[in-house]
Amino acid sequence: MKTISIDLGGSNVKMGIVEDGKVLQYTSIRSNSGDGLMPLLPEIERVCRAWCAQHTVAAIGFAFPSLVDVKEKRILGHNGKFPDYEQIDLEHWVRDRFGLPMFIDNDAAAAALGEGHYGSAADTDDFVLMILGTGIGAAASMGGQLLRGKHYQAVSMFGHIPLKVDGRSCTGCPGVGCAEAQASTWALQHMVEESPLDSPLKAEETVDFKCLKQYYDCRDPLAVAIFEECCAYWANCLIAMVYAYDPEVVVLSGGVIQWGAELTDRLAQVVEQRAWTPWGKLQFRLAHNPEQSVLLGLHALCIEGL
Ligand SMILES: [Zn+2]
Fold it and tell me: How many Cα atoms within 13 Å fall on the side-chain side of residue 15?
């Protein structure tokens, strides 16, 4: 069975036609989510029409970077991304244009479905996923089922768990000192500016994890200090997840996984030191297919829903 997956990301819309856990065709469209979804729909429609002409497509799945009511197929909030969502009925748009069923999920939840069905968590029923990048996304699958909660808010807001009482004000939630405000891409610029350490990193116009990694690899003291501070926050976040969900495996994804085993080893070490897990050691893994796990997860969501 073939389905189309559409990952509505902040700077790119990734699209793929997926069959049996494989992305057969892939494209990405530049997006500026602050401008809304409406300007992107004609291009999304053009790609879907081309694929529907070549393949028998059973459904179209969307991933949205905020809260989603999976049952009612409604977006519940936007956090500044695609603020025009209330004006668009995506289910109606898909049915009207293509005569197909539509499914929608939060992006981190879709990534967890992808890694759970076809990726690094395929051999376990109990895992948590953390996407460390522009923001912090999270999902938990227990007993083979994604935890969603009464209002579809469970786990997905884990990046907004408050960690520092007098921390930064968050742009993604009303909170202060949450994980995302202390250790995500948008926090990096503040961390660089606030540090007393001297470094050429301070002259960079924008600092993201790719840029930080380049300095880190040259052992720049500021880059090393920032990475270590981020790891401390992420580890605390993970310890909270361990106590909340009792997973067997942690899957890490997002821009930060370019640190590879250095990241998993570091986080595993801190969590092992500071979390009480008398049953043994938590397993840390990198996402098998970080670029495509959302697309694969939407395929699984469509199959489950049909
Ligand atoms: Zn927050």
Answer: 19
Q: How far is the CA of 239 from the centre of ligand 1 (A)?
A: 18
- In the reported structure, the alpha carbon of residue 80 is separated from the centroid of ligand 1 by a whole-number distance in angstroms of 13
- How far is it, in rounded angstroms, from Cα 119 to Cα 131? 15
Indicate the pTM of the whole model.
0.95
Q: How far apart are CA 67 and CA 146, in angstroms?
A: 14
Dist. CA 207 → ligand 1 center (Å): 20
Helices 221-245, 185-194: axis angle to 10 degrees equals 130
Is 299 part of a structural domain of the chain? yes
Residue 215 lies in a domain: yes
Give dist(CA 203, CA 192) in Å, integer.
10
Cβ atoms of 56 and 2 within 8 Å: the answer is yes
What is the count of structural domains for the chain? Answer: 2
Do the domain assignments include residue 117? Answer: no
| Two structure tokens written together for 240 | 């909270």
CATH code for position 70: 3.30.420.40
- Whole-number Å distance, alpha carbon 93 to ligand 1 midpoint, is 32
Residue 223 domain boundaries? 122-286
Cα 274 from Cα 10, distance rounded (Å): 35
Instruction: Judge if 137 and 270 occupy the same domain.
Output: yes
pLDDT, tens digit, 9 for 90 and up, residues 103-157: 999 999 999 999 999 999 999 999 999 999 888 999 999 999 999 999 999 999 9
